[in-house]
Amino acid sequence: MEQRRPPEYILEVFADPTSVKDIIKGILHTIFFHRFFPSIRPRTWDLLDLTLPVVDDVELETLIDQRTAALIHQIDTTSNLHSNSVRGQMAVQFFEKRRRKAWFSKAEDEVCWEQWTLDVTLATPKTESERAKVRRAMEMMLQKTAMKIVTIVNRNTDHIPPITTSESNPFPYQIVINPRDEGWRMGIF
Question: d(Cα 105, Cα 97) in Å, to the nearest integer?
Answer without folding.
Answer: 16
